[in-house]
Amino acid sequence: MTPEELRAARDRIVPDVVAGGLRVLFCGINPSLTTAVTGHHFAHPGNRFWPVLHRSGFTPRRLLPSEQSELLGLGLGITNVVARATARADELGREEFRDGGAALAVKVERLAPAWLAVVGITAYRTAFGEPRARIGRQERTVGGAQVWALPNPSGLNAHWTVESMAAEYARLREAVLTGNTRD
Fold it and tell me: Looking at residue 155, what is its pLDDT?
């Protein structure tokens, strides 16, 4: 990707990978510029979403971002709290997160996934006014879906390794498989 392509991708909207009745709708913070250029979610080379999704058992093999549509056959999908692409998540304001949370609730109600997995605790806290929320299953529902807050797989989130993230994603997977709404 050229610097010009990345600059031109700013504020671009990347289509969701969704269908009605998913088992889990994964919700990122917002698309990166790399995602906006490619049209594939979690496409930045430093993003660990795809390896974590596989290691946690959600996918039978490590998918490439370009294979994102294969998630639908597994009952999984991808959306974002904020739709517009930016170079960094810190370019988004609180109001944009709150508006994104309201729009996400409407989307979730329409699509009716069993679980909404928000990939980024700070995004979840801000979008839904839950400042004390922790990683894991949340007490609230959004649009009728159970909610689980997951660590952000960005390479910038050095507090979490691929292994520790995969363990947390696997906790969600177990809840999905068993129908357990308590962790």
Answer: 67
Residue 88 or residue 105, greater confidence? 105
* 90 domain residue, yes or no: yes
Mean pLDDT of 14-26: 97
Read off the pLDDT of each residue in 132-159 and give the average, rounded to a whole number: 90
Q: Which domain holds residue 13?
A: 3-178
Contacts for 63-71: CB closer than 8 Å, 24+ residues apart: 64/40, 65/35, 65/38, 65/40, 65/41, 66/38, 66/40, 68/17, 68/40, 68/41, 69/17, 71/17
Kindly state the average pLDDT of the residues 171-178: 95
DSSP 93-133: -HHHHHHHHHHHHHHHHHH--SEEEEE-HHHHHHHHT-TT-
| Domain CATH code at residue 9 | 3.40.470.10
pTM over 0.90: yes
Count of structural domains within the chain: 1
Q: Is residue 183 part of a domain?
A: no
